[in-house]
Structures are given as structure tokens and as C-alpha cells.
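Notebook p. 47: complex prediction with iron/sulfur cluster.
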Amino acid sequence: ACNGCITSAETVLVEEQSFGRLLEGIRNSKMAVITVSPQTITSLAVKLEKTPEDLAKLIASFFRRHGVKYVLDSSFARQFAHSLAYEELLLTPSTSRPLLSSACPGFVCYAEKSHGELLIPKISKIRSPQAISGALVKGYLAKKEGLSPCDVFHAAVMPCFDKKLEASREQFRVEGTEIRETDCVVSTAELLEELVKEEGVAEDVEEEKENNWTTSLSRGIIIGEDGGASGGYADRIVRDFVAQNGGVVKTSKLNKNMFSTTVESTTTGEIVLRVAKVYGFRNVQNLVRKMKTKKEKTDYVEVMACPGGCANGGGQVRYETMDEREKRLAQVEELYEALLRGNSWEESVREEWKRLDTNYKNLLFTDYKPVETNVAQTLKW
Ligand code: SF4
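Predicted complex, C-alpha cells below:
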């Protein structure tokens, strides 16, 4: 998705993160942890005609058989990211806006290579859910289990090949070491290939209900969050803003992959907040053009490189025809929306957040380019 600008060194980084490498990593570690994205679960649920809950159990069971100890839903990390987004926007002066979301490595990679000076200073310092999960697994969870980060293997299953590049970035290494926080990333389609190779897929679901091996996925819990099957940052910012200030929310669909939301003051009718969702490179390029000419007045933009966002990521299950692709994508989105209505993990994330000490909270941030202010310190954890 990286706008066709992938280098040969990056191709090597993508190709070396294979399923074989993942299994090898599990075998050679004292503890293995897998983070699975909810887009993966919904894409596979549609393909294998199962409920997302049963599919989650199936994935958990599959990895358990291969020796994995914890299988986590990445939405848990996403909730951490969301809970910081509004606060980061408040700390961003109007002259530095729009603040741009950082969760999509396809966009970050494009920004770095194509419009670094304009875009990079505006990119959020909050890590992506995958990077937050990696930091917490190699930091918090390893310590909790009495292990050193080098004894722990952490892999992720994502809708996207660019996540492999993100995992190999220097900034996502355990501090002061060469150890990656996320050792390996495989795509949804790569996992599907392995799942269908193994027999007994249907029986697994029943079996999993019987045992007491518990992780979020083995219990079939998938965390939903406002904002559909992608980012969710823009929706969360609007929600937090309105909870604190009140206001009238108006959303307009500018095209299939571009939405704009404004909040108007209930007293003056003035627009007090503008956010946008900009998906797909064509829309991203328009955004860049408007930013260059200073015509972009938005406070926050959630940017995703793929048209349709992560539900339609390059690593998802593929279908032959365009019709089939569109039909299945609509099903994936529908399943995801249903999950949102079924689960609310906000409370438990808030509780976990209180328990995390300052050192771990600092792990939730990154910088794509050194800036003077350390956001983690500014937010006064
Ligand atoms: Fe990956 Fe999602 Fe970005 Fe597509 S939109 S490149 S799937 S993170």
C-alpha cells in the first residue's frame, strides 16, 4: 500500500516475516504471544462462514496447539491509543494543525518519502495499536511473567503488509537493545492458508468451549470501538470533545472514502471542531495539496492509505472478482459494526491504564522525527 514506493531493502524485510519464521520464533522462545487484529477476525469469519466469536476461538486454539501462551486482540491496544488521542489534540496548537493519525504505516511511509517536511511534524506521536501491543508484551507482560524481553516472542496477524515494515523500524526495539518489540507480522491471508492446511477446524470450536485456557480470544471476545473497521480515532475525538464541551455534531460524506465531521457550539452556532477521515491515496494526495496551499482547516485527520481502510487492507482475504470483493467487504464491515454493539471494553482499559506505571505509559509514544517536546512528559503521566 506504500504508494508503490517500496525499496528492495524493504521487500526483504517483508519477505523474511513468513509463517515459517513465526513458527520458528514460537519454538525458540520461552513464551510466545500473538496479537490479532479484529479486521483479521472479521475477514476470516466471512471467508470461513463462522461467527467472529467462533473464529476468535478457532484462532486461539490454532496458536495454542503451536505453543503460544497468550493470544490478544489488538483492539485492546487500540483503546489505549484512542484514550490518548483527544488529549494530544488539545496539546497541539492551532498553527500546527491538522494533527494527522499515525496508525497506518502505509501513510507514514508515504509521508516520510514524499512530503517529509510538511507531513512528519504533524503526525501523531501516539504509537499504532500493533506498536503499543509490542511494547506492552515485551515490557509489561514479560516482566509480569518473570522473563526477559529476549525470552519472549511476539508476533502479530494484521490486514496489511506494511505492518511488517512498521515492526522492523528501529524505534520499535526494546530500549537500548536490538530486540524487536514485534518480532514478526503475518497477514490475514497468510494465516488463512495455514488454517485450511490443518484439519479439524470445526471441532476446534467445540473443544475450545470446554477448556479453561483463557485469553481474550479464546473466550471469543473481540473488542469493538466506534469508527468502523479502521482507525476510529476521529470518532473518538469527536465523542470526547462533545462529552467535555457539548455541541451539535454534523457529518458529511464527501466521497466513498472521505468523511468530514464538524461540531457546532450550541450557543453561538460557530464551528468549534473539524475532523476528517481520509482513506485511499487519491484522497490523501488531495489532502496534501490543500495543506500545501494552507486551505486545509481541519483540526484532526484520520488518514488511512487503503480505500475502505484496514477492512480492505492488502493482506486481507482476497477474492477474484470486483463484485465478490465488494460484497465480502460489506460483510466484513457489517460484522465489525455488530461487534461494536456487543462489547465495551472502555472501562477495563481505563482500569488497566491506572495500573500501568509511568515507564510503561511512555512506551505508548513514538516520534517519526525528533521534536523538542516529549509528548509523554507534556501529558504529565
Ligand atoms: Fe495497512 Fe490499514 Fe494502512 Fe491499509 S489502511 S496500509 S491495511 S494500516
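Notes: The first strand starts at residue 31 and ends at 36. Strands lie at 31-36, 70-73, 99-100, 152-158, 184-187, 248-255, 258-264, 271-279, 300-304.
Next step: compare against the earlier run before touching the bench.
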